[in-house]
Design a protein that fits this description.
mainly alpha
């Protein structure tokens, strides 16, 4: 599969993952852990990765649910 086809097919999940990474970074920047004793929140790159991971997993669950709902709805119309 070519890169362009992959990006077009997975465009929404890529956008959600990048938004999650940005959200994780912003969480670290503005909320974070002031004392530095929090293993995840004290480092910007760990919080960014966690944000991206949660957004990817959450986005893929929602996208899968929407696809199944549409397929089920199409079958009931026929």
């Amino acid at each position: 599969m070519k890169i362009k086809e992959f990006v077009n097919k997975n465009r929404l999940i890529i956008i959600l993952t990048v938004a999650g990474a940005i959200g994780g970074f912003l969480y670290w920047k503005f909320v974070g852990c002031l004392s530095g004793t929090c293993p995840i929140k004290s480092k910007w790159y760990l919080m960014t990765l966690w944000g991206a991971a949660f957004a990817y997993l959450g986005g893929s669950i929602v996208i899968d649910a929407v696809v199944r709902f549409r397929e089920k709805k199409e079958k009931s119309v026929r």
